[in-house]
Amino acid sequence: MHSELIEIRTGTSETVRDLTSEIDAFLRASGADAGLLNVWVPHATAGVAVIETGAGSDDDLLTALRELLPADDRWRHRHGSHGHGRDHVLPAIVAPSMSVPVLAGRPALGTWQSVCLVDTNVDNPVRTVRLSFLPG
């Protein structure tokens, strides 16, 4: 198994951040051919998703999350910015990990699919993501 922790700068606004370039570089460096890629976000307020990016779906996901998890005073978890409690509920909806098949050294994703970090927590501008490759 080959594993690496990468740092992602998400800034101070909600984001869906495409991890394709980091994943491709990791798989090349690990000499991956066939197996499984595990993507893990070791944070209580972020997740990972497979979604199309660049055509508006990433913004649509953030809009849907804002509607489902509004940043208001309903949350019992109340430290941080206004409505921050919703960020702690996010990983129950957008899971903090996923596994993706790897074939011929590339993630076996569909044409429009990308693995993305989903971060609604504006209080933490830097995130870490653990990438692990398990040869098959």
UniProtKB/TrEMBL annotation:
Pfam families: YjbQ. InterPro entries: UPF0047_YjbQ-like (IPR001602), YjbQ-like_sf (IPR035917). Belongs to the UPF0047 family. This is Secondary thiamine-phosphate synthase enzyme. It comes from Pseudonocardia dioxanivorans (strain ATCC 55486 / DSM 44775 / JCM 13855 / CB1190).
